Amino acid sequence: PNLWRLDVSGTKSVGHAFRGTGGFQELRMVLADSTPATDEDVPNFRGLPHLMSVTLRGTTVTEAGVRKVFAPDNQTE
User: How far is CA 48 from the centre of its chain?
Assistant: First the structure.
């Protein structure tokens, strides 16, 4: 329950794995580089109440897909 950083880079995990909060109440950072994540998976990260950072390099997630879900003042890379 105290997990705050999770690296699923290079796995088959995608955003739907984070649907709801389940056991990830304290999760603050998700690294999901080189996963099959898409724009459709991005809304699922909103279910993590303390999430501060998600990296999605090497995925098909677009900035437009992120902007539909997160506030315009959130930093994206």
Answer: 9
- Cα 75 to its chain centre, rounded Å, is 13
Q: What percent of the chain has a predicted confidence (pLDDT) above 70?
A: 81
Query: Coil, helix or strand for 41?
Result: helix
- pTM (2 d.p.): 0.79
Under 8 Å between Cβ of 31 and 10: no
pLDDT tens digit string along 41-66? Answer: 888 888 788 888 889 999 999 989 98
- Nearest CA to 66 out of 13, 77, 58 is that of 77
Under DSSP, is residue 64 helix (H, G, I), strand (E, B) or coil?
helix
CB count within 10 Å of CB 50 equals 12
Structure tokens at 15: 């955003």
**Residue 55 host element (H or E):** strand 53-55
